[in-house]
Amino acid sequence: MWEILQFDTIDSTNAELKRRTDAAHGTVICSVQQTQGRGRLGRSFQSPEGGLYLSVLLRRTEPPEQLLHLTPMAAVAVRRAIFDACGIWTQIKWINDLVLHGKKVCGILTELAGKDRIILGIGINCTTETFPPELADIATSLHAHCAVDLHRLTSALLLRLQELDAGLFSRKAEWMREYAAACLTVGKPVQLLRAGTKREAFAEGIDENGGLLVRFDDGTRETVTMGEASVRGLYGYI
Ligand code: BTN
């Protein structure tokens, strides 16, 4: 049984789970808003009331290199939950943004805390009407595209995350096929941002662990597993 702890406000649901070093597998921290929501690559994640912000603790003993597919599978879990609760399908921007009509509707931050603690944090823009100017062209809310019931969406998400947890290895192939099919990055020119460097490439596909298969202009190929891939025409990247 997963234990769900609900807050009205908190700095970050990921940070709270990190502090709870004794928390059991399946502990979920959910908050109406976050004051210091965290994003990938050291960024912040705007978390006003009107979003769904939750983190779940997964205790896993497998080495991190065997768990590379966890974050991509989480993107599939959220995508399925949004469909279950709202009836619309989102696309995935590698590696873990969910996108609706070209704008980001959800971000996922996976953090390792100690050797067997994985914190999976999910933020979905649900009914937020306005975003700060720097996000206005990049972010959207579910509410702009469909009716949203936050409780229904939360329940659907928890069910899908439990399904992910149970099928992390046994259903990997099926979920990763869905990931690849829903990934809008594939088949597009991308700009890879890694360790402060930028490089143009073409995204050819997704491997079985969610790695992005790219081809460079000189014909060489690589599997990208970290950093960011800006997609031309998306989030203001021209
Ligand atoms: C990203 O898009 O860069 C990832 C954003 C992840 C945001 C979620 S909201 C719940 C959890 N708590 C956090 O502080 N961050 C994650």
What average pLDDT do the residues reach?
A: 94
Low-confidence stretches: none
Q: State the major sheet.
A: 7 strands, mixed
Instruction: Name the bound molecules.
Output: biotin
Q: What spatial order of strands do you see in the largest sheet?
A: 1-2-3-7-6-5-4
State the shape.
globular
Output the helix-strand order: EHEEHEEEEHHEEEEE
Structure notes:
With 238 residues, the protein is an alpha+beta fold. It is built from four helices and twelve strands; from the N terminus they run βαββαββββααβββββ. It has helices spanning 13-19, 70-86, 150-166, 172-182, and strands at 3-10, 27-34, 51-59, 91-93, 97-100, 103-112, 117-125, 189-194, 197-206, 212-215, 221-224, 228-231. Strands 1-2-3-7-6-5-4 form a seven-stranded mixed beta sheet, with helices on both faces. Strand 1 (3-10), helix 1 (13-19) and strand 2 form a beta-alpha-beta unit. Helix 2 runs antiparallel to helix 3 and helix 2 packs across helix 4 (172-182). The chain starts with a strand and ends in a 7-residue tail after the last strand. 39% of the residues are buried. The model has no long low-confidence stretch (mean pLDDT 94). Biotin (BTN) binds at residues 12-14, 34, 37-40, 43, 45, 47, 53-55, 97, 107-109, 121-123.
In short:
With 238 residues, the chain is of the alpha+beta class.
Topology:
Blueprint: E1 3-10, H1 13-19, E2 27-34, E3 51-59, H2 70-86, E4 91-93, E5 97-100, E6 103-112, E7 117-125, H3 150-166, H4 172-182, E8 189-194, E9 197-206, E10 212-215, E11 221-224, E12 228-231
Parallel strand pairs: 1-2
Antiparallel strand pairs: 2-3, 3-7, 4-5, 5-6, 6-7, 8-9, 8-12, 9-10, 10-11
The site of biotin has 21 residues, from helix 1, strand 3, strand 6 and strand 7.
